[in-house]
Please model this.
Amino acid sequence: MIAIAAALAGIALILTHRVRASAGPVASTPWRHMAAGLAGCAAGWLVTGRPELVWDDLFLTLVCGVALAAEAAHAARTLSGRAWAGWTTAGVSGAAAATWLLPGPLPFA
Model:
């Protein structure tokens, strides 16, 4: 449930950024935000008790926690004008995506 909410929030943030963005040149891939999203995934995996890794769930976690989080972080940084908004979005989105690995819908339940 947490991962679904985070993914939907990230998609909404990206769509808002794309609507408000001018027709200027396309920005490069935010590699630093991808690394922050991956670090967030690792931290979320550790916090949720290191659940067993299954390839299907791991792929979904990496797509949502790295690719989607990096784009959402770039959008948050551009929309807010503050660098910390991008880093926070990448880390929190990555950590939330780690909940895809849980066997139940909510952690610690």
